[in-house]
């Protein structure tokens, strides 16, 4: 890994994230759903320091608040693997689309309970339902109870 290599980081939450740098002075602020770049060395230091924004709930990147847009860094951090093919478990628009595409309420509930864990993910699923005008009373009722957030004007 090159020390001077720059890595793009994406904030997966609907609010600003901030953390203290390890290898230099100052803080990093990533705007809601925004991106910043930083050195690969700093990113790996954050991971080795077990910063939950990077390492998620399990230390392996699951449900992380920050997505590292560099495959090699994700492989080095063991967030992903080549054998068997393993991808980092984060909540993307594609995953949300898949969650909402299910026809049965039971399948929907199972996917939500499996894939939506953190407060950031709960806020994101509600924002997705709002933005995509999900108009399924049972799904909305379940989401409101599960997340603790209210959906404003779902029509």
Q: Main traits of this protein?
A:
single chain, 155 residues, alpha+beta, two-stranded antiparallel ribbon
Question: How does this model look, in words?
Answer:
The strands form two sheets. A three-stranded antiparallel beta sheet has the order 4-1-5. The chain is built from seven helices and five strands. It has 155 residues and is of the alpha+beta class. β2 and β3 form a beta hairpin. 41% of the residues lie in helices and 14% in strands. α6 runs antiparallel to α7. The mean pLDDT is 90.
The largest sheet is: 3 strands, antiparallel
| Strand order within the widest beta sheet | 4-1-5
Q: Which shape, going by the Cα principal axes?
A: elongated
Helix content: 40-55%
- What share of the residues does DSSP label as strand, in percent? 5-15%
Q: What is the count of β-strands? A: 5
Structural class: alpha+beta
Cα radius of gyration in angstroms? 17 Å
Number of helices: 7
**CA(first)-CA(last) distance:** 50 Å
Order of helices and strands: EEEEHHEHHHHH
Could you tell me the mean pLDDT? Answer: 90
Catalogue the unreliable spans.
none
Question: Quick recap of the structure?
Answer:
It contains seven helices and five strands. The strands form two sheets. It has a three-stranded antiparallel β-sheet. The chain has a two-stranded antiparallel sheet with strand order 2-3.
């Amino acid at each position: 890994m090159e020390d001077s290599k720059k890595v793009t980081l994406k904030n997966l939450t609907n609010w600003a994230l901030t953390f203290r740098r390890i290898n230099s002075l100052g803080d990093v602020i990533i705007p809601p759903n925004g991106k910043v770049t930083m050195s690969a060395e700093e990113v790996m230091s954050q991971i080795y320091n077990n910063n939950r924004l990077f390492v998620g709930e399990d230390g392996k990147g699951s449900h992380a608040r920050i997505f590292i847009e560099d495959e090699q860094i994700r492989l080095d951090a063991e967030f992903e693997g080549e054998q068997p093919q393993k991808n980092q478990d984060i909540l993307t628009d594609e995953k949300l689309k898949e969650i909402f595409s299910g026809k049965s309420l039971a399948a929907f509930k199972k996917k939500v309970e499996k894939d939506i864990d953190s407060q950031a993910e709960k806020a994101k699923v509600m924002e997705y339902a709002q933005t995509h005008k999900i108009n399924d009373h049972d799904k909305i009722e379940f989401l409101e109870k599960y997340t603790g957030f209210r959906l404003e004007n779902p029509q």
